[in-house]
């Protein structure tokens, strides 16, 4: 059987159909994947800042394993980064920062890890990733190990845990590290459009007086066919100018303005790269792109 004759995986076809339906319904913040059910995360089951010895040890091991995994998937063309635009925007941030990125593949966070390394920010900073609760509490196997130990910050449905989450975020940003947040709040596999953004990332940036670094990844079919019968995507990582809050405005005003500016940057990148206007199939115009 030729590479191009690989049958398209049924689960990927189902996800694409679900994404198509979710867009039509305007439900942009619902995941299209069949993830394991979420198990609530109580505060006693998480050590956000890795203060305990065993947490620290597992974190060191996980980071080494994760670094090797990243090198391997790049070498094996499972992650293809064709180009990075705007690396200077990443390099020039000397304080802590929130990184925002569109979310369309489990490997997109590894793309940001690679940018973090290439920019040489990794020499003096750490990169944390905000993840969903279920990925931390109930994801199996190798990826579950990385989710639980590799500089991740799980959200939680438990209010007491979220208090600890916010304290950890404040500490991380104030000491000058970076936090990656996917502000669309959902992963849609190989979805190319920017989705409407939630406030959380911008609230945290405003509260801590740190910039938001907006990243929008565009993609093209490569000539390599994946095991799922779809072409592996080649990524262009587009890094926008850092977005800063205005000290003359309230936190609420800054949150809204930074969110709008972030979406504007993403929209411009999308339309410039794909040479088409950003339009959704959502009925009754539930979504505004202005």
Descriptive account of the structure:
The protein is an alpha/beta fold and 290 residues long. The protein has a single domain, classed as Glycerol-3-phosphate (1)-acyltransferase. Helix content is 41%, strand content 16%. It has helices at 10-25, 53-75, 87-91, 108-118, 133-137, 141-149, 159-174, 200-208, 251-274; strands at 80-85, 97-101, 127-131, 152-154, 178-181, 212-225, 231-239. It has a 7-stranded mixed beta sheet with strand order 1-7-6-2-5-3-4, with helices on both faces. Helix 8 (200-208) crosses helix 9. It is globular. 33% of the residues are buried. The mean pLDDT is 94.
SSE layout and pairing:
Layout: H1 10-25, H2 53-75, E1 80-85, H3 87-91, E2 97-101, H4 108-118, E3 127-131, H5 133-137, H6 141-149, E4 152-154, H7 159-174, E5 178-181, H8 200-208, E6 212-225, E7 231-239, H9 251-274
Parallel strand pairs: 1-7, 2-5, 2-6, 3-4, 3-5
Antiparallel strand pairs: 6-7
User: What structural class should be given to the helix and strand makeup?
Assistant: alpha/beta
The CATH architecture is: 3-Layer(aba) Sandwich
Span of the ends, CA to CA: 47 Å
Overall strand count:
7
Give a brief description.
This protein has 290 residues and is α/β, with parallel strands linked by helices. It is built from 9 helices and 7 strands, in the order ααβαβαβααβαβαββα.
List keywords for this structure.
alpha/beta, Glycerol-3-phosphate (1)-acyltransferase, single chain, globular, 7 strands, 290 residues
């Amino acid at each position: 059987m030729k590479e191009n004759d690989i049958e398209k995986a049924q689960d990927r076809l189902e996800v694409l159909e679900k994404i198509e339906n979710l867009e039509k319904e305007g439900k942009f913040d619902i995941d299209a994947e069949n993830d394991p059910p979420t198990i609530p995360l109580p505060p006693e089951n998480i050590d956000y800042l890795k203060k305990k010895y065993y947490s620290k040890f597992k974190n060191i091991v996980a980071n080494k394993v994760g670094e090797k995994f990243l090198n391997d998937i790049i070498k094996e063309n499972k992650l293809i980064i064709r180009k990075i635009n705007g690396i200077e925007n990443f390099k020039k941030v000397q304080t802590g920062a929130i990184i925002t990125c569109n979310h369309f593949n489990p490997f997109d966070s590894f793309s940001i890890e690679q940018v973090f390394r290439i920019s040489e920010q990794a020499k003096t900073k750490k990169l944390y990733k905000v993840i969903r609760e279920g990925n931390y509490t109930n994801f199996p196997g190798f990826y579950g190990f990385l989710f639980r130990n590799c500089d991740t910050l799980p959200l939680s449905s438990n209010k007491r845990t979220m208090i600890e989450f916010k304290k950890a975020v404040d500490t991380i940003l104030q000491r000058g590290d970076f936090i990656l947040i996917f502000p669309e709040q959902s992963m849609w596999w190989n979805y190319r459009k920017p989705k409407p953004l939630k406030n959380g990332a911008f609230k945290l940036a405003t509260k801590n007086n740190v910039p938001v670094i907006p990243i929008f990844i565009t993609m093209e079919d490569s000539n390599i066919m994946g095991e799922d019968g779809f072409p592996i995507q080649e990524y262009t990582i587009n890094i926008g100018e850092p977005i800063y809050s205005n000290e003359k405005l309230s936190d609420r005003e800054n949150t809204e303005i930074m969110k709008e500016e972030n979406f504007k940057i993403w929209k411009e990148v999308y339309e410039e790269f794909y040479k088409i206007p950003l339009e959704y199939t959502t009925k009754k115009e539930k979504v505004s792109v202005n």
